[in-house]
């Protein structure tokens, strides 16, 4: 999107506001499917947790995507968006057996990553096919908080526990229809990913009724100019050839599945904020905006980088600013950034704001969560209203402290 289009959205819908470019999402989806065009059966299941607005889900459904869900609420949201149960896979972690059974009743694909739950579910529901999430013990993600395939991770069943899985399957007579892994986000080296894939192939050989192999996702997108990203085209070429060879040896054309979230929506998003004040201290110039980590927590939580652009003054002289929010704690978006000269009232755009930004927003400091806008066919569509004070009070129940009871003293 162009800066003048973003400025117009800020003027029309106010700030702070999240804006998503539908064309970018579509291009990323097509880029991924094109990279794996040599696979007979490919299924992209968008990771709902990245950005769960129902209009985004409907957009991805129109492109042919399924969805990957991690909670029963995401399953229900997917059904509300029009996905059929077979287009939804449920991949929770640490949830109760009751929640898994609730998802199974809805008819969605089930993915289990716990030996105890696997045995309980298989004993009670041996006729319901189940996918198994394997932990390959491979460190392939970026930040430790988003690397989920290493040996100390809470996710997945260890590859060293495959004999336990086989024993449970034999005892319960349950059907395993898929094998899954997710090594973590921000994959830098595709050779590490391919190494983990070989572990998955070796595991898959031991299950005779598979319908699909799910390789997770975690593909890295660039966060700033010159940043590295996962080479999807090279990965597609190498993994497709290996997957096709495996299918020949397996004797059946399986579905190759991915569950991208950030890859599809991150670059589509811009977060627009207004500069409330420019504050000079003895050592720093702060640009203070009308938002905080209540709306965009990733820089404080992960140390993530979001390019910050002054779209009100794109040709101004560059100066150094530390961009901070209005929360009564440290909430630095960017430290000592080189940005075109900022004046109070300017609109700053935070890039790569499509994934894990609004979805992690809160009402901390009793602030309203922002509006969301989808830019589609050269038109801005409001897809979520800005919250109001009534929303803050919603579901709160007031206690009446006005009535006073007389105290009776014992004689």
From TrEMBL:
EC number: 4.1.1.20
Pathway in which the depicted protein is active: Amino-acid biosynthesis; L-lysine biosynthesis via DAP pathway; L-lysine from DL-2,6-diaminopimelate: step 1/1
Enzyme class: lyase
Key words of the record: Amino-acid biosynthesis, Decarboxylase, Lyase, Lysine biosynthesis, Pyridoxal phosphate
Binding sites annotated in the UniProt record for pyridoxal 5'-phosphate: 218, 356
Annotated ranges, domain Orn/DAP/Arg decarboxylase 2 N-terminal: 24-266
Quaternary data: Homodimer.
Known function: Specifically catalyzes the decarboxylation of meso-diaminopimelate (meso-DAP) to L-lysine.
Name of the protein in question: Diaminopimelate decarboxylase
Originating organism: Algibacter pectinivorans
Taxon lineage: Bacteria, Pseudomonadati, Bacteroidota, Flavobacteriia, Flavobacteriales
């Amino acid at each position: 999107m162009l800066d003048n289009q973003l400025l117009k959205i800020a003027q029309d819908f106010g700030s702070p506001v999240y804006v998503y470019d539908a064309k970018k999402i579509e291009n990323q989806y097509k880029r991924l499917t094109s990279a794996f065009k040599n696979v007979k059966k490919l299924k992209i299941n968008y990771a709902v947790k990245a950005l769960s607005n129902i209009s985004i889900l409907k957009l991805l459904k129109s492109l042919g995507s399924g969805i990957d869900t991690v909670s029963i609420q995401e399953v229900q949201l997917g059904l509300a968006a029009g996905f059929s149960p077979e287009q939804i896979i449920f991949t929770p972690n640490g949830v109760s057996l009751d929640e898994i059974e609730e998802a199974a009743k809805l008819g969605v694909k089930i993915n289990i990553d716990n030996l105890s739950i696997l045995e309980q579910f298989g004993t009670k529901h041996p006729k319901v096919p189940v996918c198994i999430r394997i932990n390959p013990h491979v460190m392939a993600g970026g930040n430790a908080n988003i690397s989920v395939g290493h040996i100390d991770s809470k996710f997945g069943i260890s590859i060293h526990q495959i004999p336990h899985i086989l024993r449970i399957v034999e005892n319960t007579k349950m059907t395993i229809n898929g094998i899954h892994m997710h090594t973590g986000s921000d994959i830098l080296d595709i050779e590490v990913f391919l190494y983990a894939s070989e572990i998955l192939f070796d595991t898959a050989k031991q299950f005779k009724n598979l319908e699909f192999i799910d390789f997770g996702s975690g593909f890295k997108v660039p966060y700033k100019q010159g940043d590295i990203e996962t080479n999807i085209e090279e990965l597609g070429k190498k993994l497709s050839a290996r997957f096709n060879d495996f299918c020949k040896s397996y004797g059946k054309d399986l579905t190759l599945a991915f569950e991208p979230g950030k890859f599809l929506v991150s670059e589509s998003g811009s977060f627009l904020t207004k500069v409330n004040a420019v504050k000079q201290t003895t050592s720093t110039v702060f640009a203070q905006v009308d938002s905080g980590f209540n709306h965009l927590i990733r820089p404080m939580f992960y140390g993530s980088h979001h390019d910050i652009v002054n779209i009100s003054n794109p040709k101004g002289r560059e100066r150094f600013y530390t961009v901070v929010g209005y929360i009564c704690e440290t909430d630095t978006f960017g430290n000592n950034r080189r940005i075109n000269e900022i004046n109070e009232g300017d609109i700053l755009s935070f890039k790569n704001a499509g994934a894990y930004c609004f979805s992690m927003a809160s009402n901390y400091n009793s602030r309203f969560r922002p509006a969301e806008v989808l830019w589609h066919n050269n038109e801005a569509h409001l897809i979520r209203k800005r919250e109001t004070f009534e929303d803050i009070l919603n579901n709160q129940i007031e206690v009446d402290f006005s009535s006073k009871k007389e105290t009776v003293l014992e004689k």
